Amino acid sequence: MNLDMNEPNNTAVDAVQRAMSQGAILSDVQNVCPDGTKAWMLCLGYLEADEGFLVRAGNTSLASNKDAARGNKRRLLPMYCVLIEHPYEGLILWETGSGSHYPELCGPVFNDVFPRVIYEPHHDLKAAIESTGHSYRDIKAVVIGHLHVDHAGGLDIFKGTDTPIWCHERELKSAFFSVATGADFGVYLPHYLDLGLNWKTFTETELDFAQGITLHHFPGHTEGLIGMQLNLPHDGTFIFTGDLFHVKENYYDGVPQGWLARDHPAWFNSYQRVKRLQHRTKGKVIMGHDSTTCDSIWNWKGASPLV
Predict the structure, then answer these.
(1) What is the pTM of this model?
(2) The domain 17-56+73-302 belongs to what CATH superfamily?
(3) Which of 9, 10, 44, 225 is the 20 to 30 A CA-CA neighbour of 261?
(4) pLDDT at position 59
(5) Dihedral of the CA atoms 137, 153, 221, 185 (nearest 10)?
């Protein structure tokens, strides 16, 4: 779906004034994408997983219900990318999904835990980009929130190109270490963690990546995870958190992640920072895999989900 309708006669000043009229703080919303910016949130298929991976104590029993008959609840997990058509920077891609060969490359054990259950031809990364009238060959920069396979597996289409691939320095080091030593093998895989890609990193906690695009370091799920703040000129602020929050309970209810959690104190600090950022910008928070949130974007303004 196109996140910004590109209505005429609106300017960055108008955007800032609209945000401030809703209670936003000037310093957090004044970096606005230029007029003419367009953004698409594109569906790249669906995984499925046991709820226990996503929310702490998911699928566990209590003394008060230990005798109740129940099955293990599973969650449908959309994957997506965001394509930004930026008047000054060209095409910018936020994340890539799992890649077209996810089942074969991940192997039977991983597929038993995190199977890809919906994947149609239009969910392919190249096809999804082409649905906007663009080609992946025209992308000027890729930004990866974190390098787990369901967010970065599609990087293999950029092999043999000089397209810059941006991530936090701590994420790149952690991912390559994990593959080289087997420390976290499975969620990180070697087929897309290729030394031949044009890797670019940063170390800042907050980086103004381009006009209207700010990257925030949000460790917890992984030590180098970043989120993207996108200040659009007409539709306001979107905060893409990646897997800092897998599902809405992680953000709205403050329920920590389940078995996929890594560093809880870091996660909690990042959670608090996102809460404050949303309060200061009045932005829309988009989690990594929440079906309800994704559907609300894909159905927004009458658009049909790309399922």
Answers:
(1) 0.93
(2) Ribonuclease Z/Hydroxyacylglutathione hydrolase-like (3.60.15.10)
(3) 44
(4) 86
(5) -140
